Amino acid sequence: MLEERQIIECVPNFSEGRDMSIVKQITDAIESVEGICLLDVDPGEATNRTVVTFVGSPEAVCEAAFRCAKKAGEVIDMRKHHGAHPRMGATDVLPLIPVSGISLNECAQLARQLAVRLANEAGIPCYAYEAAALRPERKNLAVCREGEYEALHEKLTNPEKRPDYMPLTAELTSGQDDELTGRQVDMSAIMRTGCTAVGARDFLIAVNWNLNTTSTRRANAIAFDVREKGRPKREGNAITGKPVLDANGQPVMIPGTLKCTKAIGWYIDEYGIAQVSMNMTNLSVTPLHVAFDEVCRCAQNRGLRVTGTEIVGLVPKKALIDAGKYFLEKQHRSVGIPEDDIMKIAIKSMGLDDLKPFNPREKVIEYMIEDRTTTAGSHSATSTPLASLSVKAFAQETSRESPAPGGGTIAAYMGALGAALGTMVANLSSHKAGWDDRWKEFSDWANQGQALMSELLVLVDEDTAAFNRIMDAFSLPKKTDDERAARTEAIQQATLHAAQVPLRTMQASHCAFAICKAMAQEGNPASVSDAGVGALAARAAVLGAGLNVKINAAQLKDRATAEHLIAEANVLIAQANEAEKEIMTIVESKL
Hints:
By secondary structure, the protein is an alpha+beta fold. The chain is 51% helix and 13% strand.
């Protein structure tokens, strides 16, 4: 099945918030990396600090993070810096944050590699903090930043306090240990750049729960009910009683119900209501929809009601998709529906449009990346993703005299339609009157079908891209022996790829038979013909993609690889013929 795209976010804080020409040099360094989306630049004059947000693939983000930190060290002189916010370097903090397709532990490893590179190549000392910390106490940023910039000189020479990664001198190699003994550290250069805390942390969602009250005290009571820290334990009266202290003289706390959350209550003049304002620091521990339900429960216990939700800033797509599926399952409805529909359920269920319209294209990180990438590359009709075209436009594009999109692309689309038809029957069956106890059975099939359809829609464009890659290889120069050799190798690699893509289409399309067969046998009888058409489409996809495997494999000089590809294709073709025959027998028996 289709793998989730790996996306990470980076939110560096730079010690400059007044001179925008300096900030522009830093953000230019970020945008110089291909594949990076710069989402936000937030300067503060009083703090003399700018918070920048950008996202992309792990490789692109790490490269952009290195470049911007290096540039900040060149254009910001920490010896002259003054501001209201704690800081210790030109780039003060540099956290990597998993958004999709990558774990926090993987981001921690990337953060450590980034810190090594900054120390070795840019001469910037680095602490590793949060999930990337090498010492338990340094998980806390405040420990790393203790004494701030002014204490840096003393910390650099103290083995217990100095940064985890120190710059190497020209004659030292990265394989040597990190001891200062015998090292010629350029202290003046370090005092100019300061020190950076490089780390990895979970995505933080800032969310406000809207209440049908103007009482800050009531909102605070709910906040104390749910936040992890909870409320102070008191003697006698829970509100006015004397706080209970522990042996160290610290208040004893009664924990709240939601782990990894911080919350307070406040009143917002703009809206004329009170809110519970919450920071959610680990969505895998406390998902957005779980927090919503719990705040609703606690509000109801106090005679209040949550009227809606306000998300501040951006949100990962998974948070809303998980929420939409959660509310669908509570209704005993199929979760195997289009992503846009699931998103609408999440928006309406949590009242995300309570105070103002909620546009996922402007709030969801993955959608912003998609839209900016499409806008940047959509200067012609052919650069627009085929899967995003209307049915009419897709047919017209196929009919033009250009050789792509061709048979392989159409085969992938037929496979997607086969999976879509099987999914449709599953969704109709899950909501059929009298079959309420079977909703989960059909929802599971529909969910599989949606994932399969998504994979095949990606292959629609991949097949055309594979053909274009061959054309690009043929256009390479061939004047010298070296150029001719490189051109030949590029053509062979592109041809191999062009054979492998339709093989993936065959494999994915073959999976549609299981869905169509199950729906022909167990699904809504009124839709059995749709399951049959789905099977026919899947067979056409497998056989059509098989032709593309064979025509490209025929051009490979590596005959062993070519014969292996063709043999795999022939097995899938034979299986497809049998599967389609079996399903059509079932369908005919029920007509």
